[in-house]
Amino acid sequence: MSIPDQLKTIVVVMMENRSFDHVLGYLALPQFGGRTDVDGLLHSDTDPAFANEYDHQIYRPFPMSDGRLSSDLPHSRREVSTQLAFRGKRATMSGFVQAYVEETHSVVETPPVLGYMTPASVFMSNFLAHNFLVCDRWFAPLPASTQPNRSVAWTGCSLVDNSVARIIPHRDLVLDWLTAHEVRWRVYHSGLSFFLLFGLLDTVLGDNFRSIRQLAGDLAADSNDTAPQVIFIEPEYDDSPIHFGNIPNDNHPPLAMGPGEQFIREVYATLSRSPRWANTLLIVTYDEHGGFFDHVPPLPIKSAVPAGALYSEPFTTTGVRVPTIIASPFVPSGTCYSGSLDHTSILQLFAEMFAGDRRKYSEDVNLRLDQGIESVSSALIKTQRTDIPVAPATPVMVRQLIRSTKLVLNENQKAFVLAGQNILTYDSGRAIGRFPELLHLDTSQRSLLPPSPTVVPDHDQKPRTIKRPSRKRIKKPLKKPKKKQKKPTR
Amino acid sequence: MVFFNASPIHNRHKTQVAISPLVAVLLPLILAGCVSIKSFQASPRNVCAGDTVTVSWHATGHVELEANPPLAHTGSKPSVGAEQFLVQQTTRFVLNTQCLFSHKTAEADVVVVANASKEFGGLVSCMMPEQKLTLSVPLQEPQVSSALRVTSVTNMNTRPIMLSKENVRVTLLPAQTSRAFEHQAALGSWEVTAPLNPNETCDDALEAVRDRLTFQIAFSCRD
User: Fold this and answer.
1) Please, how many CA atoms are within 13 Å of residue B66, restricted to the half-sphere of its CB?
2) Do B19 and A405 touch (CB under 8 A)?
3) Among A14, A344, A406, A478, which one has the highest count of C-beta atoms within 10 angstroms of its own C-beta?
4) How far is A15 from chain B (nearest CA, A)?
5) Please, what CATH class does the domain formed by B117-221 belong to?
6) Does domain B34-112 have CATH number 3.20.20.140?
7) Which residues, numbered 393 to 412 in chain A, qualify as contacts with chain B under a Cβ-Cβ cut-off of 8 Å?
8) Are residues A156 and A81 part of one domain?
């Protein structure tokens, strides 16, 4: 399928840590419409594909009310391996409860890893699924945690296989590729941007990064010559140590999904009210499954270990399926696409649209393409829809938050602190202007960081002078923390 | 999560608390190391009303044991221990351990299953000369109480299975239920086998059953 001529703007929203069956599997259940085109939870009470075993007792998926979980769920590379439970070359998908028990020491009748949402809990995803296109074979690219999967999403490959407190080493980012191909792009962030974790400094402080509060105004004000062709919209990440004005809404457990659904609603409502909607493609996806069960085995996609990688064992499969919905005038209403997709399908789409050939993104992306990963364009139609489904009223009460901080405990949270400190050290004035929450990056949080608190990567575009943070704004000078062992996070 | 109602500027001054170098160095170590749960178990997990269950734990930090619905003799506990409780209804035991700002929780359910059923099984092996899929399911005290009796068994697979325990053996068609094991103890070693179809390879058979065989036991309690 080629790119529709009228398609001008691609919008990507990447949420955190939910599996397909967990969020959209209900679509196949008779009591929720029984969609036969979606590979979901049909017969999950009897089909052996859904049986998870712990100590010879069988556990099966169950409907779960939305709400805060008691903890995050296991999803490191080792834990995902337990979940996939390979027998020879076949992933049986039978070890999710085992991994949960090993991590939490909890043996309960309804282990949360097997819980699934119902339409009332995911009102916006349900709306989008019924009015646009569900992708039921979109996989996280790697059977691992957030940092590896976001690395593949935004660079085409990953130099890491775990999530720890660091600036993430990486190949050229998609933002670099877009700039090199003279594509206009922007990132709209709700709080701290995940791109900070890749060590971007001048880029993040530049005009292409904007607060999500500017999105609606920009859509109205931009001319055809200035409107971005690619937009990344970031939620408020739960792993950020500070929140300023937005509550966390990235859907990362233990968060409830209500705020994330409300966030997706706001994004869709803003875009669909814009005059640019007729030429827009919105992709809502998740970086990885976050430990939640899915019954479809990952695809046998081999990844070479890239030069400079911090791991030596190559990946031989994708990760677990993640819920992905494409909302656009260029997809049919209430349909499902079952071609093989992962996050590099977006990079293929960029290459097709802006370089004229889906093979022109990178060799890493082509390696996956050659093994069957398709471009997002495969799911699109040429005929442009003219109807604009109206976003439903929100049933979610979202508390307004002025400011909150929390103890930094997991490795990805520490990575956010490190990234915040990095950009403060680089240019505190501009950094605080862009991310006001950095005013509140407490010294106690900084003390939890690993050695080398200031990491300035060598790939950022512009030369610059390293400055210390303003003493006016940050009373305590930066302390070099005690050296300690890095531990992989879940 | 802490919510502040004051203005951000006000908060900035309010929350920039000076921390001594010693605390800054020790805090991460304290937070990381002072709380852990090494094990937590309630045994058996499937019981009759009036059964005694043993709850055991090994943790660090300040340990509290809760039960829901509440039971006597829960509350503050030593970091390593085991206690017995008599349960009349399905009960969730919760182990909370806390140290400074960090805490961990583990949960263990004990289910009164009389007049109910549970599914057992797991990943199977394929025996090629014998042309069958086989699985052994040893049900011991951690899984089921010695008071539990079998009412019936049901084949949960899409192909026929042979189910045996001690000297009883029964062939069950898909979804078929049998009372062949009625009044037997649920404890013991259950053997499940499923013959391969004619000309079927192990790989094909394993894929067809998704590598699993399962069966359901409906329980009653010893009089």
Assistant:
1) 10
2) no
3) A344
4) 21
5) mainly beta
6) no
7) 401-407, 409
8) no
